[in-house]
Amino acid sequence: MSAILEVQNFSARYGNQKALRDISLEVHEHEIFGIIGPAGSGKTSFLRSLNRLNELIPNFRVDGNIRFQGVDIFRPDVDLSLLRRRLGMVFAVPVPLPGSIEENLLLGSRLHGRNMDAPALIGKTLRAAYLWDEVKDRLQQSAFALSGGQQQRLCLARTLMLEPDVLLLDEPCSGLDPISTAKIEEALIELKRELTIILVTNNVMQASRIADRTALFLQGRLIECGGTQQVFINPKEKETYEYVSGRFG
Amino acid sequence: MDPQRNEGLLLKRGRRRGETLMETVVRGSALVVIAALVLIFIFVGKEALPLLTSAEVNREVTLETMVRPQANGQSMWQPVSEKPRYSLAPLLIGTLKVTLVALLIAIPLAILAAIFASEFAPQQLREIVKPVLELLAGIPSVVIGFFALMVVATWLQDAFGFRFRLNAITAGIGLSLAVIPIVFTVAEDALSAVPQAFRDGSLALGANPWQTAWRVVLPAAMPGVFAACVLGFGRAIGETMIVLMASGNAAMMSFDPTESFRSFSATIAAELGEVVYGSPHYHVLFFIGAFLFVMTFLLNLAGHWYVGRLRARLGGNA
Amino acid sequence: MKLWIKFIGFGFRTLTGLACLIIVAMLAIILGNIAIHGGPRLSWEFISAMPRAGMTQGGIFPAIFGTAALVLLMTVAVVPLGVAAAVYLHEYARQGSQVVHLVRLALANLAGVPAIVFGLFGLGFFIKFVGGGMDRVFYGGTLAFGQPCILWAALTLTVLTLPTVVVATEEALRAVPTSYREVAYAAGATRWQVVRHVVLPQSVSGILTGTILAVSRGAGEVAPIMFTGAAYYLPYLPKKLNDQFMELGYHVYVMTTQSPDIEATKPILYATVFVLLVLTFALNIVAVLVRSQIRRRLRTA
Question: Which one of 1.10.390.10, 1.10.3720.10, 3.40.1190.20, 3.30.300.30 gives the CATH number of domain B64-316?
Fold first, then answer.
């Protein structure tokens, strides 16, 4: 499988505070790439650098290289709006926008004008997010009426409506009950047939469950990166062993 | 993966232009705000300048003659007469007279009410008092002036029998109604901004609520309360309609609050309609306006500086 | 000793409560007095007819029309301008930049400028400079816009009420959660798209509050329009932008201070004041209600 994302010697800082140091890795197409590590290790900063969302923060500075499908994403002539559609993001806390379920899903078409086959796409994305059966009769209802787990699946479907190539998920199941978590994990496993998934998770077990390859971040540095089996059962680095076995969290 | 999709990542010209347009529009609007203030300064100043620079105007009046007390001890403001007199003294005294009366009424009332609203009142009462004060602030000053002239003057006349029906006390009462809302609002904001921890600490040491309010909260909020007074003062000297209607509009040189008077702003309002464009009188009126503008500008700066001091002081003590 | 402290405490608290009561009473007295004297004179004829017999009979329709037209023009100018400025301050500008600091300073000071100075500004800038310039350039020197008229009065009021709209809009923008904006950006929205599709729709009630407050203020201020377009008696209604107009507040002022027979005009005078008061009050109450509803909704969200 070819590499859809290539990161070379990537560093980032907020003002004077270093967030990421010299990260180099590759993400392959159609895989679930898990990123694990304790809080503050730079996982979220890394994820948000991939779709350049970090640029909303005033003092954010980067160094190094990130190539998406061979194109350097930091080129000044890159269409930021397009980049963020191709790498769609789902946040840790579900954020339904005010409006109905349908209106939430149509956010992409409202912004970008593409409306070709909205009802079909709505059905497709809601099924992919394992939410269709639960909301098919109430698409006009307010999105706030849904439970937490349902809202997060709605956010997943909303992102899928953009037809991205890569899904960036930032601890999507934190705060969700085990059933909702299981549904989302099932959805991701199905989705990797069509797109690539990068999953940041605080939950080591989740990575071991569904990630094909896993990377461990610690204090802004990449400690180890490889097949999930290998990282968990036969880690190369001492810190990896200590983290996956729960020595520290 | 479709190799052609690479190119799609790069920028399309058209959309960028729309974005830049909107950014220019909103930035322009923000600059208009600054421009407005600057333009006020320029155009009021422009018509005031001839007082200082034009020889023709200076034949009739100069800054010096306006400020210096006049020879025979009778400083007068009589711009429309055979021998025009332009002493600012009666206007200054008139302005100060009514401002003093208004502040003497407004400041104690507003600050005490602010203390009540922020320290003693139950939540329900607070939700009534604050909107009531906003409604008071919403009464047009021409209505307050009308009320002062028609009703308050009559009451005072019946009660005290002043020589002049319209005087500084009548106008001062009316003016206080316009000053109270702003003093209350700023003071109440300042008192509410004092962290609850201050009060809790004081109460834990055995003080009761009024001691806490008087000895802990009020001193902590003092820069804000002071700012409220400064802003109230600015409001008072700038107010036009109330004074215009309830002052009697006689530019008399007297410290007696029971006599009619003229204030700076009322003078402009009363005389600008009759004045000849470009005459010395015209430029003098603009000069007074420029003076008022500068004064309220400085008072506003001072008021906001004090609020900043308050925030710094409270912000440091979480 | 304890009793003495308790007594002072009671006295102090009562004093502060009394102060509140006095203020509320002042408001009630004014409202009551005007309602009592002005109410009876109110009738459909009063609102819809033209004045007659030297303002002692008839109605004040032209003043109501003039006020409405004036305020409408002002709103058309001040709302887009104020909202755009607030959007810049909150959504576009880099926080802490020099421009933001200057704009906020200008807003605070603009709010404190005396109303009569606005009148001088209207005269010196809009009428003489802009209007005079327009006359020279477009009308070959004849007097068209270089004189008091409803356009300049409305623009003068625009400058006066600008801070109100900007402040209310900013409060509304601030209330929109940052997470909404993030979601929109992550979905590929540009800055303007975020503002247009997510932020502004959520801010409508706050902007409405600011507009209502501005309208109320504009309808009540007299000093800025005294020399920029208001007139006491006009036999016609303002139809063109460079027409003069009658206005409620100005009408009250002139009737109160310059009426030859105050006793005869008293009924109409009180009724006019009542109409003006009811108008500004209704607007204020609506704005206060809308705002407290917004705040209550935010607190429970």
Answer: 1.10.3720.10
